[in-house]
Fold this sequence. Notes:
The structure holds two protein chains of two kinds. Chain A is built from five helices and 15 strands. By secondary structure, chain A is of the alpha/beta class. In chain A, strand 11 (187-191), helix 4 (194-206) and strand 12 (212-214) form a beta-alpha-beta unit. Chain A is globular. The mean pLDDT of chain A is 91. In chain B, strands 3-16-15-10-9-8-7-4 form an eight-stranded parallel β-sheet. A four-stranded antiparallel β-sheet of chain B has the order 5-6-14-11, with no helix packed on it. The interface between A and B is medium-sized, with 32 and 37 residues.
Amino acid sequence: MNIMECVDLRVLELLSMDGKEFFILKLSSPKWAYKTGQFVMVRPISWGYDPFLPRPFSIANLDEEKLEIFFQVVGRGTKKLAELRPDDMVKVWGPLGNGFEIDESLPILILAGGMGIAPFLGLIKKHPHPENIEIIFGHRKDISCYPLKNISRKILIWTIRDRTKADLLRLKKAIRVKIEGYSSDGQIFACGPLPFLDMVHEVCVTKKTQLQILLERPMACGIGVCYGCSIPGPFNKNFQVCKHGPVFGCEELSTFCEHKGF
Amino acid sequence: MDLSVKIGNLLLKNPILTASGTFGYGIEFERFGDLKKLGGIVVKGLSINPRQGNMGDRIAETPCGMLNSIGLENIGIRAFLDNVLPKLPYKTTPIIVNLYGEDIHEFETLSKITSERDEIAALEVNISCPNVKQGGMQFGQDEKSAAKVCEAVKRHAGSKVVIVKLSPNVTDIKKIAKSVELAGADAISLINTIPGMAVDIYMRRPKLTNVIGGLSGPAIKPIALRMVYEVLQIVDIPVIGVGGICSVEDVFEFILVGAHAVQIGSATFTNPALCFEIVDSLESMALKLNINSLEEYRGKLLI
């Protein structure tokens, strides 16, 4: 099951959620088995020497037909990705990282901030018991920017648009209330921007709740050799986010969070 | 076709090596190609004790390249020798350890420890890392200290080939190269990264927490090529070209100016199978160039 390889995939389709900033990239399927939370390194062949580095993306979905990545245009690389056309070739290596430890018999609470919803899209679609999933989704942009339209009606989703400090406090309160129910017999997964994760981490540490956090860091290789994504862990040891993560237990990230996400 | 090259008493089956810091400890790449194919594997810089490296953001993309300020995070020489080295295909592929000491004494110790291991083919002495406070580039910027480190390593290295990796951040690379040659180096690899920086105008912050980092990638290839060329005007020991090599054509550029071998560095980040693919295309490239051996092409730049 633990395969990892580098392949050239064909662009099947590039869908924009909003016509400018949010995209779903569909590539021909590498037919890998993957775990929710694992990621791939992506680099279009047409990039040549520039942009130089590949980009890491969570696997949003992967089946026999396609590999899907959900991305937002935030810089040069993602801007170029948004220019891809069908039949363009893209170098992809993966599946990378550890992924979430999921027990499908337990209820799941997903805490996602913005693009942090990306790694959960496949899980939401494929979970055998969608009624066991609850999502708290904090987002800056309009909800239509995120591919949540066709999710099962059995999934309970609370969306909170956070544009102000008050919104963020509301989000924090909602999370604090919700995690209570899941702390004893359920699983909690989180992914989102650092301030969001920092807040989730703080709530869970205070409540002594188990939590799995997917962390996002800049990476050059994705396979544990460039050491660009290292973060400080306990006992003066580093974690390589690409190799030891990107999913970490709450306690593993305490040192990192003390540094306030650097 | 015979693609082999000799670096001192070290025989490489082809001139393709991996550059330290871009190929991990080697085993990470087993999934992407056959390690036995490579001319040699240069592993990540190793120090006596494990190092955590620098804090914060340590990589930033730049035009046709990247900056890094990792600061030599590594597992330490012991962990490498005990846990990693036995897993590498040392019988078929020379393993070259890149050594980093904060002072001469540490370099001596590292040289002693590593020379005792038969699985290791050669030592690459890192006196050119721009991202550490002690040692590193400091040694490589002064002829005398560069020579001292080289002598110290050589003294304890036994029969191992000693390669000294030079920094481009010097006034005259020829002088440094000559001094390490005189100090007994068997070969020279150049260049290490070039100090550079990148800033974010919106955040008003440097992109690297360390502010300054080392520039690598195809952006620096012309500088590497020039330095390899210059150094070869005045030394007789083999030179290993490093810096922005991305293709088999790039490999032959370095051989044309006189390099014996090359190291593939940051380009590996753009394609983890790149060094294997380059090895596979050496022969067809040689045919295209109408040559039967690397020797007949090496240093044959028409000026």
